[in-house]
Write a structure and sequence with these properties.
Blueprint (H helix, E strand, L loop, with lengths): L12 E6 L5 E7 L2 E8 L12 H23 L8 E7 L3 H18 L3 E5 H7 L14 E6 L4 E6 L5 E6 L5 H11 L7 H8 L22 H17 L3 H31 L4 E5 L6 H13 L3 E3 L10 H13 L17
Helix pairs in contact: 1-2, 3-9, 4-6, 5-7, 7-8
The structure holds 5'-O-[(R)-(carboxyoxy)(hydroxy)phosphoryl]adenosine and zinc ion (ZN).
């Protein structure tokens, strides 16, 4: 009898490291399949209404070794099985990035394995290609990447051929959520809380302005100021205004942000004639953004893509998948690499 031996192609195991802001995360990926994805958040910023950079880097320093250790254990591998280490080089807070980059350098040096630099924003987009997502977009597609630091519409033509079509001129969408929450006395990060309270509110109760900048760009700083003046006026009449109207304020504010985002995304999809439209980044965890993508997408006959919830906010799984595609291209960096707060897209 003829014996057929199928030699399976060697599988690649990559350790991903993410430390650009206030989450310390490590993931192990085997080709495009996540084996573990550990995220340690930092509660220390809650009381400050935003991330305090110095406190963030100190917490990364404390968390990085236990988080990597937990990722390796959960994946059921030994560190000697790892073929390469991928890390976020930027953009982000320099002190935070330094911890992840320095760790990646020593880890790679100790094991004599290659290092792969990843742009955090590419990571958010490439999270769509992690195997356990329901479906993957086809090239070319448009991705609305919305996070605490960025708001971009990106034309994605290949894994690493991406161009920014439009972006925010001032605050990011996540920043607008967080600053609004702070004005209402809610802790950081306020985005998930506004999302939660909005569920029981009337989105048409209060009217806030939709910005009108050119092209496919965005602006959210005027909206934040409009909310500030609105709250000041109303609190003068009723000191309990926020408490009495929390759900309606959250629903109305959230609806304004989501309408602003879709106004530009719809225009871009039409002009660039793409049918695959995706969202990514922390704000893509927002329930109205997710449901509106499906509703508006259906009306425009788009194929719509939303990453699994755990791949939306900052996590090392997205860095590991980006690292995997770079590994296939042997796109490695040397020990001279340094983090960069503002990284070219
Ligand atoms: O991508 P990400 O985890 O970190 C950055 O790269 O910035 O995004 C964090 C942002 C924060 O501004 C947070 O408030 C926002 O994502 N966010 C949300 C939701 N979950 C996270 N905003 C609105 N609704 C949510 N459910
Ligand atoms: Zn992010």
């Amino acid at each position: 009898m003829l014996k057929i031996i199928i030699l399976s192609a060697k599988e690649t195991i990559i350790l991903g490291i993410e430390s650009s802001c206030d989450d310390t995360s490590a993931a192990i990926i085997k080709n495009d399949r996540i084996l573990s994805n550990i995220v340690a958040g930092q509660k220390v910023h809650e009381a400050f209404g935003g991330v305090v950079p110095e406190l963030a880097s100190r917490a990364h320093q404390q968390n990085i070794i236990p988080v990597v250790d937990a990722a390796i254990k959960k994946a059921g591998i030994s560190k000697n099985d790892i073929d390469a280490v991928a890390f976020t080089r930027g953009p982000g807070l320099l002190g935070s990035l330094l911890v992840g980059v320095s760790f990646a350098k020593s880890f790679a040096l100790g094991l004599n394995i290659p290092m792969i630099e990843v742009n955090h924003m590419h990571g958010h987009i490439l999270a769509h290609f992690i195997a356990d997502n329901e479906k993957k977009p086809s090239f070319p597609f448009l991705c609305l990447t919305v996070s605490g630091g960025h708001t971009q519409i990106v034309l994605v033509e290949d894994y690493f051929k991406m161009s920014i079509v439009g972006e925010t001129k001032d605050d990011a969408a996540g920043e607008a959520f967080d600053k609004a929450a702070k004005l209402m006395g809610l802790p950081y990060p306020g985005g998930p809380l506004i999302d939660k309270y909005a569920k029981e509110g009337d989105p048409n109760k209060f009217e806030f302005p939709i910005s009108n900048v050119g092209g496919y760009d965005f602006s959210f700083s005027g909206l934040k100021t409009a909310l500030l003046y609105f709250l000041q006026r109303e609190i003068e009449k009723n000191p309990n205004f926020v408490k009495d109207n929390l759900h309606d304020i959250c629903a109305s504010f959230q609806q304004t942000i989501i309408k602003t985002l879709f106004k530009k995304l719809t225009k871009a999809a039409k002009v660039y004639q793409v049918k695959d439209v995706a969202i990514a980044g922390g704000v893509s965890a927002n329930s109205l953004l997710r449901s509106e993508l499906q509703r508006i997408g259906h009306n425009h006959s788009w194929n719509t893509f939303i990453p699994k919830f755990e791949y939306c906010t900052d996590n090392a799984g997205m860095i590991a998948i980006a690292g995997y595609y770079k590994y296939l291209n042997k796109d490695f960096v040397g020990q001279e690499i340094v983090p960069t707060a503002r990284m070219k897209f």
